Batch of 4 targets.
Target 1
Amino acid sequence: WMTLTPKIMARTLPQISLPGTHDSGAYWLNKNARGPDFIKFSDNWDWIVSDEIEHDIAYDVTHAHEQDLLGQLRGGIRYFDLRVTWRDGVFYVYHGLLGRPLSDVLTHIRTFLEESEHEFVTAVVSHLATGTNEDNDVPFTPSQHQQLMQLLVDHLGPYLYPRNNQTTSDLLAIPLGQIVDAGPKVLVIYADEAFFKDGVLGAASFDENAEWFWPEYPATGSYTNTTRLWDTEFEIIWYLNSHDSQC
């Protein structure tokens, strides 16, 4: 839809509303595997609430989408919230429960970019932690950060929009058409203080892949769950039709 909306190419990122999804990888969740953010009932209820019931409830609360990322992309979504954990040597997305391997999700993004002309995608990698409800939110080690960054580069490398010594202020002043002039691009925001602290390259600055990632930048608005893709498509079409003079 960006290619079909030429006026948008003259606008900068703060002037564009990107349809986005909350916990974008929560289209499939493993009921038998808890994530770092799993909320467990009080121990006082253990005698009446089984793990199976807890997992069923967690699934109902955290299952956010019916479509995988490729389906979301083809439906118009361009901003993704990816929460990543590490389990037994593999990176996974998660939301209460463990989701698909991150490599599967990145393959969806890569596939879409390969079939696109001048689309722009933002992927926020955040909530980087290991553990379950018994041992929550253990930060990634430097080695895990390095392996995660390498995985991102391996899957998305040809389409990554690098910093190249640009600041976030520089990024927000560039017209979209200039960013995607040579083809589709993905902006990966590495939202972790071990990498960026207050917008400045931090503890992971030694990594050779650092130039491919961006810190978080100020944004307003929100993203949503999309349990039915048709609803998302309808909302995008409605927005474009009702704001034609601005697009």
Note: Helices lie at 51-62, 69-74, 102-114, 142-156, 168-172, 176-179, 229-242.
Target 2
Amino acid sequence: TVSALDSELLAALLPSLGLLTEGKSVPLRVVIRPVNAPTAVPGQGTVDASGGLLDPLVRLEWRGVEIDVYALLEDRLARLFTVAADLSLPLGVTLDGCSGVTPVVGDLMGAVTHARVKNSEMLAEPLTVIEDLMPSLLTLLEPQLARGLAAFTIPSFNGFQLKMLAARGIGRVDGGTAYNHVGLYAELLSGGQTCT
């Protein structure tokens, strides 16, 4: 659930939203509901020097995800519309120090396909206007999605610690960019060794 949005972002593209809010800026909430289980497609997993994702380590493919957009109207959240769509979310990881792992969300332009609007009776705009709005709206949500993926530390076990070296796709599928597996490369350190 993402709640750090307001109606001013959408009112320019959806004039009837301005009528509903009486020209005021009201909070919006976006709720992404996966209707079907996602599938994961391993990729190469490369990141640039600044931690930006060049090629996803895993691409989550969600078919038929429903995205609800709510507005705070008359002291309650009212659903403005629902968009059923297919999402393709590129995810990767950056390695921090010896055992820190931080998930990274890639570029979300083009992540929404086959958008179909429903439950939009509160708005006067044609369905195609709302459908065309979804890729841009998802791009606005990218920072919120990234914050939802918390960094973590690989714990030590039985006196050993892993020094993480890389995370990459292994075994390229013939003729494509997908891989068969995701590999985590690490050096095994005994309890007496210090990770630097």
Note: The helical segments are 8-11, 15-20, 127-140, 142-147.
Target 3
Amino acid sequence: MLADDNFGDRDDPYAAVARLGRQLERVANPQAMLEAIAESVAQDLRLPYAAITLRDGDRFALAAAYGTATPSSSTLTLPLVASAEQVGELILAPRTPNERFGPADLRLLEDLARQISVAAHAAQLTTDLQHSREQLVIAREEERRRIRNDLHDGLGPVLSGLKLRAETARNLVGDNPQVDALLADIAERTETAVADVRRLVYSLRPPALDDLGLGTALEELGYQAEL
């Protein structure tokens, strides 16, 4: 068991809990909150190492840590539970490898873990939301790229081919004003459709981004602006 004069505020054992509660109220960013919590727990309880993990699928990934645990230390792992679900872990190392957390220490740490669970749950929800947004952006970009390719490599060439065939037919039709006018109208409408497809392709995603990359595309845009 850790010695009473070494384990933080033993005269007022729940001063660390109160301070942690005030800290949770001040920090808005969930990730920054976890880092602040790890630091606060380690410093208030005079521990060399404190870490917080968050659930990532079927494993727990390190989210925040403060200090260093000696290789021979036997760390204590407490579950962080929110809404009846384990969202992470609180990992603590005693001051020396020979020390152990006693019953009174464990009660205090379990109370701390209950407060930390709220912050861990908020951080996990924020991470999940960010991941969902990233996946949505990726899905939208993939769909935009697919539509662009379909228009640019599919419909565009087909319309251009129709325009060319209409103009060729005009040369072959001979002296027939009505047919010539009809073919001229078809060629004109086809050219308009090709221009519309090009505008659609560009509005979906400027081709230079795919062809040249962002950096080179910006340089090219700047060069054209100078002309």
Note: The two ends are 77 Å apart (CA to CA).
Target 4
Amino acid sequence: PETMKRLEREVRFNRTIQEVLKALDLKVGEPYVPRLPLVLQGKVFDFYRSRGYRFAEVSVRRDIDRERKEARLTLEVKEGPLTHINEIHLHGNEKTWDWVLQNRIKLQPGDLYNEEAVRESYRSLLRSDLFSSVNIDSRLVEGTQDRVDLDVTVSERAKYRPSILVGFGSYELLRGALRFENMNVLGT
């Protein structure tokens, strides 16, 4: 049984390494540029945070041999625990119903943490045109190492938007309009 567990860990490790290498999209033999370590660090960091490792740490060590014209980059990853969403707390929505925000958030309590889903939730909330700013933070639940609460804080736009339109046409000559729009009808 212990040998089987060790083999399963090795297979899972090798599969993860292959996925990371694919995510890096690195071509061997390409010229080294000084920003490459930072770019690779960001890609590996995103890779792990999009797979549930909210507290992953990635460090890069570079060794450059100018005589041989070689650069060796060593990436060290500390995965940390797989992290799940515990609760989602909404803040700042006074005119907008909670369910409107919840429908645009791509994660639910119990889901594995996924950085890409957090980013998509952020974009979806801003695209609704109900909010002037959105902030999504995650904080560790007290007493645990693998559960986070998401704090979604929004700043609502003004409910009413007045506008004045003025123009000139060949038929009407001077023309204009006064518009008064309700941007958040019934909190939705």
Note: The CA atoms of residues 106 and 118 lie 7 Å apart.
